[in-house]
Amino acid sequence: MAAAKTPKKKNALGRGLGALLEDSSPSSEKESTFSGAAVGSINEIRLDQIQVNPFQPRIHFDRTALEELSESIKVQGIIQPITVRKLSENEYQLISGERRFQASKLAGLETIPAYIRTADDQQMLEMALIENIQRENLDAIEIALSYQRLLEECDLKQEQLGERVGKNRTTVNNYLRLLKLPPAIQAGIRDKKISMGHARAIINIEDVDKQLHIYNKAVNEELSVRKVEQLVRDLMSKSTETKEKPEPKGSSSHRSYEVQQVEQKLSSHFGTRVGIKTDSQYRGEIKIPFVSTEDLNRILEIIDL
Q1: What is the value of pTM for the model shown?
Q2: Alpha helices in 203-251 (DSSP H)
């Protein structure tokens, strides 16, 4: 019987958070009860009986927005119940709806309507992350971190992740690449000093100092995404011209060392051993090997093709 439940869980994730909540518990859960509220039902639960979700990926809630929601709750009440899992008699834990939960406390409510589910820790984490990703006001770094946690802690591949959050692999990869940026630039995205479009342009530069230079210039001069993209192209063009410029005779050993350094950087960037071959006329080729169609697609996404 246990083996039959596993694929059911995966299918639910593929259809999003709502389906996961629908299928996260046994089919007989509506008959399952502790001595108190029935699992699988909606009940008024005391706020002091509910624990916050320890897997909640969002740790900062805007105080002004919470107060506005609290005032709305005072007038309209709770329109959409929160979702909890029952731990024991008169003890519950949030699965989703922490903003409503916190705003209800601010509003002075004693109880809140809650839909009771059963869920293990893995499902709790998955549901909390997926609900977080589906919020409209998340910044790109919060989304990227949630994607990363789903990949690492829920043991998903990028293709599976894309299916579960309704995004294609390229979009998922574009978010994940933001986490390679220096902390200062990630903070700038979070604080809305630059947009994801600015960041996607800056990340094409490998040198951290140059990344920070363009970032600071973009912030200080309030540059558009298109202007930053042009600065990046100009910088990369100058870098290419410098590499292609013939060196004086007698510097072959120095040139060889440079080629090795470029090979190492490219290998690190693409996650595979990149080879560079040159002749005496400084002509050559770059080889980027791949081992499967999936590996090729991964490399093409890095190149952004």
Answers
A1: 0.48
A2: 208-220, 225-244
The closest of 112, 1, 119, 128 to 49, measured between CA atoms, is 112
State residue 36's pLDDT score.
Answer: 52
Q: What are phi and psi of 212, to 5 degrees?
A: -65, -35
User: Quick one: tokens of 221?
Assistant: 């001069």
- 1 to each of 4, 6, 11, 25, how far by Cα in Å? 5, 10, 17, 13
pLDDT tens profile 142-157:
888 888 877 877 777 7
**Residue 272 reports pLDDT greater than 60:** yes
Distance in angstroms (rounded) separating the CA atoms of residues 267 and 58: 35
Domains of the chain (ranges plus CATH)?
A: 2-126 (3.90.1530.30), 198-243 (no CATH), 255-303 (no CATH)
Q: Evaluate the CA torsion angle 100, 104, 105, 111 in order and state its sign.
A: negative
**240 confidence band (pLDDT: 50, 70, 90):** low
Give the integer Cα–Cα distance in Å for 237 and 219: 23
Beta strand residue intervals within 26-101, DSSP E: 42-46, 50-51, 82-88, 91-96
Instruction: Identify the weakest region by mean pLDDT among 64-73, 79-88, 228-237, 243-252.
Output: 243-252
* Distance, CA of 130 to CA of 135 (rounded, Å): 9
Q: What is residue 289's predicted lDDT score, i.e. its pLDDT?
A: 81
Contact status, residue 120 vs residue 128, Cβ threshold 8 Å = no
Q: Could you tell me if 286 and 266 are in contact, meaning their C-beta atoms sit under 8 angstroms apart?
A: yes
Q: Which residues contact residue 66 at a Cβ distance below 8 angstroms, ignoring those fewer than 6 apart?
A: 99, 102, 103, 106
Integer Cα distance of 292 and 5 in angstroms: 32
Please pick, among 22, 68, 98, 301, the residue that the annotation labels catalytic: 98
The verdict on whether 98 is a catalytic residue reads: yes
